[in-house]
């Protein structure tokens, strides 16, 4: 299959290399990410959205574990677009937005807003967290107890 072309995708020898472009060996997390990208290339574009959603979710997990929270959020969002019944993706998005420290779009703005006393931004940030957790809880009643408690304490649970 290396270097061959099929109707939907072209796979090159570089796609199967476990070295980066500089000839350095990749670590396990990088290898996992590369393998998922290969899987995505090999998948027929008409693949079942349910199956693709789990692939995207797993790529999100890899980015989360690598501390790349903004990228992780993108993949979780893409997974939920294809399969809105993935409570673990909603939960992970909420956790990243609530606890994450390396985000340029959520946490940094939220933390800055807290430090600057900008309650409107803080509320908007936590409202988004609440929506993600509500989605996860609605799909798996009885799970995510800590999230349920947070929603009750912050009066965001309906």
Detailed description of the structure:
With about 160 residues, the protein is mostly helical. The chain contains eight helices and no strands. The protein has helices at about 15, 30-40, 50-65, 70-80, 85-100, 105-115, 120-140, 145-155. It is globular and about 50 Å long.
SSE layout and pairings?
Blueprint: H1 13-16, H2 28-42, H3 49-65, H4 69-82, H5 87-99, H6 107-116, H7 119-139, H8 145-153
Helix pairs in contact: 2-3, 3-4, 4-5, 5-7, 6-7
Structural class, by secondary structure, is mainly alpha
Q: Distance N terminus to C terminus?
A: 53 Å
Count of DSSP strands: 0
Largest sheet: none
Estimate the global geometry from the Cα principal axes. globular
Number of helices: 8
Fraction of residues in H or I helices = 55-70%
Rg result: 19 Å
Helices and strands, in N-to-C order? Answer: HHHHHHHH
Weakly predicted, low-confidence segments: 1-18
User: What is the percentage of strand-forming residues?
Assistant: under 5%
- Kindly state the mean pLDDT as a whole number? 76
Q: How would you concisely characterize the structure shown here?
A:
The chain is mainly α and 158 residues long. Helices cover 65% and strands 0% of the residues.
